[in-house]
């Protein structure tokens, strides 16, 4: 019977979850066997070979005689808890693994045969546990309960939040989406107490670091940090705030969510359902005598306009925008309805950034990418001998990656660039950048490629967006 159970569990689970699932299955099955034997009046069979209690990790003494009342006393938990227990254990295992991997997100994906758990680590999806299909709904219900969501509603998407029970643990943002095979759950882990990086720790080139320091000591203007999700915009924003947090200034932030907690700074959490949006919070903050305002993200035209107006009236505004590079940030602001003259006079700088994955040196090998990638990145044909990629080894957990590094394009607005911002086309603004010596993300990625620090594929993935050699 033991081997039958193991075969059963083995079919359902991959090896990494097996050790955790077998005791769970054992508990469940043992309870069912005990109650069934009690029903038929033969509880003594429990000890006599039909069921081997050594299988369970919890040694529970079977009843000494065949009296039913003893059996009832022996069953320790009510029915509902008995069935909840495996889901609780699986959920805890999933969360613990995420912390161990230092994952930013957990994906619980129902598929036709099983439910797959994947983690986003260093920006890439990593395969995790595989959970039996029949456990999926219980697991989702467990997470919904933790996130205070409606467990009986399975047809519409739901969003929730799980607060950590430990002061140093991560808060979790929960999103549930109905899909073909069931509800998919994505959990974003927010770590409040993760060490805030200082400006030198960001890894900016020396001249860009000086420029950034000078920028945040300006009395007014707007500094935009741009890039896609996971490019480290928030870290840069907080590094800037950290730099000035001890100065005699009134610093106020509007965030969604509050990701880091500062002692000497007023932080406001956006609450859209209650009507506290970025725009309404920003208006209120302007009446609170601020020197520096951090706006977590500009998502709408109203917030954009108020932020730019504030930057013209004696406030330093630090914010992020979801665009690819510094020039496209201007186009995005125009799209949001910010007048060109307001952009030209309010904008102090745009920092476009990416996090690039560094090749593992232990398993790097020559790379021969297709010519189209080299052409797009502006790498000459004669260079390929120096190109490397990493195939993966035990040292890098078979990912080919050894850490990440920031790449920054710092556009500091001067007289030249300001006049291009006022009425120039996108290509005129790009030209102004070039003549003013701004190093673009693509150019920097290309240098890293030629130095063997990153692969061509990584440069293309992170820093190519139809720029450089196309125009
Ligand atoms: Zn390696």
Task: Give me a quick take on this structure.
This protein has about 475 residues and is α/β, with parallel strands linked by helices. It has helices at about 1-10, 15-40, 70-75, 80-100, 135-145, 205-215, 235-245, 280-285, 300-310, 325-335, 340-345, 370-375, 415-425, 425-435, 440-450, 455-465; strands spanning about 105-110, 115-120, 125-130, 160, 170-180, 180-190, 220-225, 250-255, 265-270, 290-295, 315-320, 345-360, 365, 390, 400-410. Mean pLDDT is about 85; it is low at about 10-20 and about 50-85.
Topology at a glance:
Elements: H1 2-12, H2 15-39, H3 68-74, H4 79-101, E1 105-110, E2 114-121, E3 124-132, H5 136-146, E4 158-162, E5 171-179, E6 182-190, H6 206-216, E7 221-226, H7 233-244, E8 251-255, E9 266-269, H8 278-286, E10 292-295, H9 301-312, E11 316-321, H10 326-335, H11 340-346, E12 347-359, E13 364-366, H12 371-377, E14 388-390, E15 401-412, H13 415-423, H14 426-435, H15 441-450, H16 456-463
Parallel strand pairs: 7-11, 7-12, 8-9, 8-10, 10-11
Antiparallel strand pairs: 1-2, 1-6, 2-3, 4-5, 5-6, 12-15, 13-14
This protein binds zinc ion.
């Amino acid at each position: 019977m033991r081997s039958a159970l193991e075969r059963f569990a083995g079919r359902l689970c991959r090896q990494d979850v097996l050790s955790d699932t077998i005791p769970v299955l054992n508990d469940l099955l043992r309870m069912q066997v005990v109650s069934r034997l009690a029903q038929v009046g033969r509880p003594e069979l429990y000890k006599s070979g039909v069921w081997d209690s050594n299988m369970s990790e919890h040694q529970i003494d079977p009843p000494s005689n065949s009296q039913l009342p003893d059996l009832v006393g022996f069953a320790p938990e009510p029915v509902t808890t008995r069935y909840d227990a495996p889901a609780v254990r699986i959920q805890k295992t999933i969360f613990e693994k995420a912390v161990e991997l230092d994952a930013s997100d957990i994906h619980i994906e129902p598929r036709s045969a099983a439910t797959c758990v994947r983690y986003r680590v260093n920006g890439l999806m990593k395969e995790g546990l595989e959970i039996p299909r029949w456990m999926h709904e219980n697991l989702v219900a467990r997470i919904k309960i933790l996130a205070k969501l409606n467990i009986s509603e399975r047809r519409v998407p739901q969003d929730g939040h799980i607060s950590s029970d430990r002061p140093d643990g991560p808060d979790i943002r929960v999103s549930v989406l109905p899909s073909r095979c069931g509800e998919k759950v994505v959990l974003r882990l927010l770590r409040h107490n993760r060490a805030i990086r200082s400006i030198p720790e960001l890894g900016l080139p020396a001249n860009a670091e000086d420029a950034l320091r000078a920028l945040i000591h300006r009395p007014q203007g707007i500094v935009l940090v741009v890039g896609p999700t996971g490019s480290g915009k928030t870290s840069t924003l907080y590094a800037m705030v950290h730099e000035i947090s001890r100065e005699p200034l009134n610093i106020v932030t509007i965030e969604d969510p509050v990701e880091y907690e500062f002692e000497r700074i007023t932080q406001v959490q956006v609450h859209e359902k209650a009507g506290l949006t970025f725009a309404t919070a920003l208006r209120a903050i302007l009446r609170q005598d601020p020197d520096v305002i951090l706006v977590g993200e500009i998502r709408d035209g109203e917030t954009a306009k108020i932020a730019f107006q504030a930057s013209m009236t004696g406030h330093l505004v630090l914010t992020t925008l979801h665009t690819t590079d510094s020039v496209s940030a201007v186009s995005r602001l125009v799209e949001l309805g910010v007048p060109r003259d307001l952009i030209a006079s309010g904008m102090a700088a745009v920092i476009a950034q990416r996090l690039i994955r560094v090749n593992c040196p232990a398993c790097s090998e020559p790379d021969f990418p297709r010519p189209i990638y080299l052409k797009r990145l502006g790498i000459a044909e004669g260079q390929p001998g120096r190109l490397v990629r990493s195939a993966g080894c035990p040292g890098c957990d078979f990912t080919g990656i050894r850490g990440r590094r920031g790449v920054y394009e710092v556009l500091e607005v001067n007289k030249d660039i300001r006049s291009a911002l006022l009425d120039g086309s996108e290509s005129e603004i790009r030209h102004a950048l070039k003549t003013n010596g701004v190093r673009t993300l693509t150019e920097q990625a290309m240098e890293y490629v030629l130095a063997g620090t990153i692969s061509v594929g990584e440069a293309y993935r992170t820093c190519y967006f139809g720029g450089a050699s196309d125009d």
